[in-house]
Amino acid sequence: MKIEERHPFPQTIDEAIAIQENLRGEIITTDQLSTVQYVAGVDVGFAENDTLSVAAVAVLSFPDLELQEKAIAKRTTTFPYLPGFLSFREVPAVLEALAQLTIAPDLILCDGQGIAHPRRFGLACHLGLLANVPTIGVAKSLYIGEHEEVSPERGSWQALWDEGEVIGAVLRSQTNIKPLYISIGHCISLSTAIDYVLRCAPKYRLPETTRWADKLASE
DNA sequence: GCGACAG
DNA sequence: ATCTTGTCGC
């Protein structure tokens, strides 16, 4: 698929903050997705003492979740891990992998937060804007926000709050299993995002898309 | 100032 | 994220 260049990648934290604050206003938090026929999962792994980034994308059919296409991109790591700036570390390699795809996914599930971020511009937002694809942030742990206890049954969820606003949902994707932290990435509403995450995770805690991408990035 | 901190 | 074996529990 085709990826348009939007901005150069920053060399300093101040430049990174400026990019996040300039782009956050472009995030769309309502449903602007077409019929979902293909869902993708992306993940980035690191090797060789952190100097190599390996991005993997897995495209599955929806709703049957069968693997349709995969892509891998290896690239020199150019940004350190800093909470709040994860996208600057992972997105460059992910864009290279997405560019190789023959099938343009209708929705991407990302490994990390969307607007559940201090400046409301987490990894899923950044990737969604740069790739111009609807995205959902599906994080395995809490970054910011507070929430009530979530019931143990699959499908139950609680709003994630920060500074008086709902920034995401804490969702139980499987009964009696640790919840996931879901937030809007781009071009999707929170309730629709919850629905897709549940439909993509029929059997395990993590969505099938993410499971495939994880596996591909570590091979 | 101190601690916490997506992957 | 990554380094790493077996092991407890549904």
Automatic annotation (TrEMBL):
Keywords: Cytoplasm, DNA damage, DNA repair, Endonuclease, Hydrolase, Magnesium, Metal-binding, Nuclease
Residues at the site labelled Interaction with target DNA: 81
Disulfide bond among keywords: no
Residues that, per the record, bind Mg(2+): 43, 111
Keyword ATP-binding listed: no
GO biological process entries: DNA repair
Transmembrane regions: none
Gene Ontology CC entries for this record: cytoplasm
Catalysed reactions, semicolon-separated: Endonucleolytic cleavage at apurinic or apyrimidinic sites to products with a 5'-phosphate
Gene Ontology molecular-function annotations: deoxyribonuclease V activity; magnesium ion binding; RNA endonuclease activity producing 5'-phosphomonoesters, hydrolytic mechanism; single-stranded RNA binding
EC number(s) given by UniProt: 3.1.21.7
Main subcellular location of this protein, as a coarse class: cytoplasm
Localization (cell): Cytoplasm
Superkingdom of origin: Bacteria
Cofactor: Mg(2+)
PANTHER family according to UniProt: ENDONUCLEASE V
HAMAP family listed in its UniProt record: Endonuclease_5
Job description of the protein: DNA repair enzyme involved in the repair of deaminated bases. Selectively cleaves double-stranded DNA at the second phosphodiester bond 3' to a deoxyinosine leaving behind the intact lesion on the nicked DNA.
Similarity annotation: Belongs to the endonuclease V family.
NCBIfam families assigned to the protein according to its UniProt record, in alphabetical order: PRK11617.1 (NF008629)
Name of the protein: Endonuclease V
Organism, scientific name: Limnofasciculus baicalensis BBK-W-15
Record gene name: nfi
